[in-house]
């Protein structure tokens, strides 16, 4: 991360514009383990800016490299021409052709002067190419760091959500268990209540049977009729109570009975 801070601060911040060193520090200090959904979305927007800028930086680097390579090829071509002129100059001097040697000397001098002016420009092209390359690589690394942190933050957030869901499921299971326990307790109470009701009904039945037995006993006490009585007892009872059947009385007896009452 030291390379990112160093290069972006010295070279990239001006080109990077809105992304800048502040965003770099923000990304480096950002903790994905405690990130919220809003922070993740904000960091994704920053990642979009960085990757967009990285795409531009890659295009700039490709162009700068092509220009540097082209300048180097052109310089090498002129250098080869200068070497050829120098060789011919030496040949002319060796052969004693002073006129030719002077002509070649003048041409070589011009070419060397041109090469001397070209060399700093070629070096500058390569320096620009290297800076563009470093800038692109720094942005690429920054994008990778950001992407990794965003991915980790998403994973942590998803893990948190899964933990919450599991906790909620556990809560629901516990609630269901509690409700079942309550229902079982309710069933037990219902059973107890049924036993109480059954006992009450039994008491009522006993009381009804007792009342029936009492009524039957009362009826027997008030009645002159008894089961198993023979005809002689019945006749004697009828005679002493005066409740014999009227069909056995004469008309005069019945009239006398009415008068006595």
Can you describe what's shown?
The chain is mainly alpha-helical. The protein has a domain at 2-179: Orthogonal Bundle (Helix Hairpins), CATH 1.10.287. 88% of the residues lie in helices and 0% in strands. The longest helix has 125 residues, at 98-222. The protein is rod-shaped and about 205 Å long. It starts with a helix and ends with a helix. 12% of the residues are buried. The model is unreliable at 1-7 and 9-13 (pLDDT under 50).
Short description:
The protein is mostly helical and 261 residues long. The protein has six helices and no strands.
Task: Give a quick set of tags describing it.
261 residues; mainly alpha; Helix Hairpins; disordered N terminus
CATH domain topology of the domain at 2-179: Helix Hairpins
Strand count, sense and barrel status of the largest sheet are:
none
Q: Helical segment tally? A: 6
Give the termini distance in whole angstroms: 136 Å
How many strands appear in the DSSP assignment?
A: 0
Assembly state of the chains shown: single chain
Q: Which percent band covers the strand fraction?
A: under 5%
Helix content: over 70%
Radius of gyration from the alpha-carbon trace, in angstroms: 62 Å
């Amino acid at each position: 991360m030291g390379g990112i801070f160093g290069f972006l601060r010295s070279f990239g911040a001006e080109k990077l514009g809105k992304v800048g060193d502040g965003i770099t520090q923000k990304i480096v200090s950002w903790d994905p383990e405690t990130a919220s959904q809003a922070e993740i979305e904000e960091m994704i927007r920053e990642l979009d800016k960085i990757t967009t800028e990285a795409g531009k930086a890659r295009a700039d680097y490709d162009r700068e490299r092509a220009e540097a390579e082209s300048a180097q090829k052109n310089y090498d071509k002129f250098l080869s021409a200068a070497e050829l002129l120098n060789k011919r100059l030496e040949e002319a001097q060796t052969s004693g052709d002073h006129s030719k040697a002077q002509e070649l000397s003048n041409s070589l001098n011009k070419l060397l002067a041109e090469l001397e002016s070209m060399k700093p420009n070629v070096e500058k092209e390569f320096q620009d190419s290297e800076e563009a390359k470093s800038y692109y690589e720094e942005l690429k690394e920054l994008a990778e760091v950001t992407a990794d942190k965003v991915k980790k933050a998403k994973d942590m957030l998803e893990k948190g959500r899964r933990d919450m869901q599991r906790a909620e499921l556990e809560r629901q299971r516990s609630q269901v268990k509690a409700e079942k326990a309550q229902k079982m307790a309710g069933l037990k109470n219902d059973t107890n209540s049924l036993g109480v009701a059954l006992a009450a009904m039994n008491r009522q039945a006993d009381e009804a049977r007792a009342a029936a037995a009492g009524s039957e006993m009362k009826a027997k006490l008030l009645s002159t009729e008894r089961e198993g009585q023979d005809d002689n007892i019945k006749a004697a009872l009828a005679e002493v109570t005066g409740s014999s059947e009227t069909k056995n009385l004469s008309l005069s007896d019945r009239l006398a009975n009415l008068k006595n009452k």
